[in-house]
Amino acid sequence: MNYKLREYRRKKKLTISEMAKLLDISVPFYSQIETGQRRLSYDVAIQIAKIFKMKPDDIFYEDYQKRLLEKEKVSAK
Fold first, then answer.
1. Which of 5, 32, 63, 75 is most exposed, with minimal Cβ within 10 Å?
2. What letter would DSSP give residue 25?
């Protein structure tokens, strides 16, 4: 789950609907990105970073690292 997205969105005082509109995607799709049920494209990641005035790595890199570590643990078993 990408709790950071939710946190940053709330700091900007944006609703899920507003974020979806800014990104030109559906509300359910954005909601699924925020809850980790869907992966986002590179383009959407860039757009999100621009909305938050951040670098994409600052938002998404930690979650990516966690997924890699989890895959490594599963592969090692």
1. 75
2. S
